[in-house]
Amino acid sequence: PSEDIGWTSCFDGFRCALLTVPMDYQSDSPDAATATIALQMLPAKDSLDVQGTILINPGGPGQSGTVGINRWGRHIAEIVGGNYNILGFDPRGTGASTPSAQCFESDFHHQLFGMGARRRLLSLDDDSVAEARGWEQLAGQQCMEVLDRNSTDAPGEISALRPGRFMSSASVATDMLTIIDKLGQDKLNYWGFSYGTVLGQYFATMYPKRVGRLVLDGVCDAQKYLEARWNGNLLDTDAVEASFYHFCFEGGPGKCPLYEASPTLIRNRVYAIRDTLRRSPIPVQHAHGPALLTEAALDMLTFGALYIPIRYFATLAEILVAAEKRDQKTLANFAAFFSPTMSCDCDPIPGQLPSNEAFSAIACSDGDPVSYDPESHARYFRNMSSDSPRFAPVWGNYYLRCTEWKIRPKWRYTGPFGSPNTSSPLLFVSPKYDTVCPLAQARAAHARFPGSALLVQDSYGHTVPSAPSVCTARHIRAYFQNGTLPEEGTECGADEVPFVGETVPGDLSVDDRQLLDTLKAFARVIP
Length: 527
Fold this sequence. Notes:
Layout (H helix, E strand, L loop, with lengths): L7 E3 L3 E9 L11 E9 L10 E5 L7 H16 L4 E5 L17 H10 L11 H20 L21 H15 L4 E6 L1 H12 L4 E7 L4 H4 L11 H15 L11 H17 L2 E5 L2 E5 L1 H11 L3 H17 L2 H6 L1 H4 L19 H9 L7 H14 L4 H4 L1 H7 L23 E7 L5 H9 L5 E8 L9 H13 L8 E3 L2 E2 L3 E2 L7 H14 L4
Helix pairs in contact: 1-19, 3-16, 4-5, 7-8, 8-9, 9-10
């Protein structure tokens, strides 16, 4: 770790560094504790025309930017044009940054927690909410003990091992400012996905004169995020689910094993499989032990598939057909999709990042304090269920996490978000039907930054890379290369859809073919 960025060659063609930043940006003490931010950079391919460095945040909150860049940084580089360095960083408390928001003694203990917690669908008609609250109380208490300052700390001391009150997005946005300062870069260039769009709104609001080229992709409204209620996210989720039946029908019996004579009949067939699983779950033996395919497990894996339809819809169809046939042998091949697994390795695997509770440490700390009340929760849950009856029971756990999270940040930005005078306009990009960050939120966030642009992609899934589109990629490239914004009302189509394949009208140029191939590969590796 260093107060300056000293790059070291790492992995295959990457550079790594550890940057020391203040744990508490509000402290003037020269002896104040510090945090270490892990950085990983893919140098620009065109070393003679480097336009700067683009910081990447893959979302979460809690996703590792260093892991992301290592896995798909080259795809980002191809999309933006090859003359930018692409830099992933692990926000404080996450990934390889230290101290980590690890609440449990080891990954093994965290896995034990995961075997029981957040595995049931929520309902107001049984004990599922009470059980979910119990698990979140356990996590909240454990994290309070490990991540927050307690009686073992000397008066006024901030232990380097207790980052819980210093993981707010305001602190992370300021870390980003520190990173570009250390890079010698006056303005932030940035591509943020999902929660990364919230982080981008924090930065653009707090430091409007340091805004360079900011792409916010799969936009969640930061003002809504502050409420910490996690409602309003499922407005378009059922439309994404409906696309599964539509594209299965369009693909035909040769490409979709669930094919029926209409999308409605396909949906009826899927819901009949769900009903059967509710009454009679399927036991499955697989390499990592016993598993049980239940209605809850099916709904959870379906919800995950809705994030990246091009990558997971075909697999989901195979699982559904196997469940319909009660084909335990085939289901065993897919058990990782619906069964929690455990690793009993006592020694950490080199390069493997530890599990943590960074989501709660960031999202619940950023939000307004919330508490559980049976009557208000019942109203909340019914309202969310009216948006998506099938997936509200999955998504509702996020709100319960925050009701039991008691660590409050020392520094928290409370809004309002937006700025009429950012030094450069932002580019917001959103699928027309986003799984968890609906277009309505993208429009609300965009309206708070006058002069910025909103590009809509006519696709289904979470973030625009979930559906390859040369049109969208070319607009993003033009923005990074010369600041060109799409005209108001611009909408791009998808060039590949589930079950059907490519939908490109006519031949592509050599450059567009290469770009489409990059986008297709990117869609299959994003988290």
